[in-house]
Amino acid sequence: MKVFSFINQKGGVGKTTSAITLGHGLAIGGYRVLLIDGDKQGHVERHLKIPKAGGFRRWFYEEEPMEKHIVEARPNLWVLPGDKSTNLVIGKLRDEPLATPLFVRRIRQEAESLGMQVCLIDLGPGLDHLQTAAMMASDYVVIPVSPRFLDMDGVAEVTSTMAELNYSKGKSWERFIILPTMYVRVWRESGTRLKELVDTFGSLVWPPIPNDPRVVESAGRGMTLWEYAAETKAVKGIEAGGKRIGGYEEALRRMRRLLEEG
């Protein structure tokens, strides 16, 4: 099983949308996917039209079995739901020295025992003890980022934290992925910031997800993009030079390749 965490200290950059869209895409393709809602806002549940619940808190803080609290939101896509009580998980990770290694071990052991092939962890904005524990549990860290000046700082903060964990804890990752979201080709700002990312991180930057109003519409209807608008540009990418570039379909292909390689 491979674990992907979706992290950025900046909010509103497409973490939840990306985790849901890629998770559901993998599930449609036959993978057994666990999506953990580590954001106390509970937006995964709102998006997928399932009830908010303290499953994440009850699993880790109260040490109940994961199996009791996961919900099959779509065929092959299970959700461990979260709500405002996730604050208790953050407190436990902050206050108990052995909580982080326990978190890392339990995610992998329990998800694998349930037959999951992929685990995606959606996290709220910030870089607190929960984000750090999720990084420690992950094979891959995905950093969604909107290519705008003020949003770019989040990439530097996450990569800096990863470097600190590598130095202090010896943690290494198979890869980290920068996923540009909300890309507007006709805006000079989007093009400039995307170029900055590629110049700095090279092939770690995946092709961008175009800005698309249907992303917001799908969440408001409790549907994923695959259900609501599978042909939209956020999924299919943008036309350039006679071919399609970017979009969640391309990101999904790359995730599948990582899973097949690993």
Structural commentary:
- Residues 1-167 form the AAA domain.
- This is AAA domain-containing protein.
- InterPro entries: AAA_dom, DNA_Partitioning_ATPase, P-loop_NTPase.
- It holds the Pfam family AAA_31.
- With 262 residues, the chain is of the alpha/beta class.
- The chain is globular, with a radius of gyration of 17 Å.
- The longest helix has 17 residues, at 153-169.
- It has one domain: P-loop containing nucleotide triphosphate hydrolases (Rossmann fold, 3-Layer(aba) Sandwich), CATH 3.40.50.
- It has twelve helices and nine strands.
- The strands form two sheets. The chain has a seven-stranded mixed β-sheet, sandwiched between helices. A two-stranded antiparallel ribbon has the order 8-9.
- 46% of the residues are buried.
- Strand 8 and strand 9 form a beta hairpin.
- The mean pLDDT is 93.
| CATH domain class | Alpha Beta
The spatial strand order of the largest sheet comes to: 3-4-2-5-1-6-7
In round numbers, the mean pLDDT is: 93
- What fold name stands as the CATH topology? Rossmann fold
Overall CATH architecture: 3-Layer(aba) Sandwich
Low-confidence stretches: none
Strand content: 15-25%
Order of helices and strands: EHEHHEEHHEHEHEHHHHEEH
Characterize the main sheet: 7 strands, mixed
Number of helices: 12
Estimate the global geometry from the Cα principal axes: globular
Measured distance between first and last alpha carbons: 9 Å
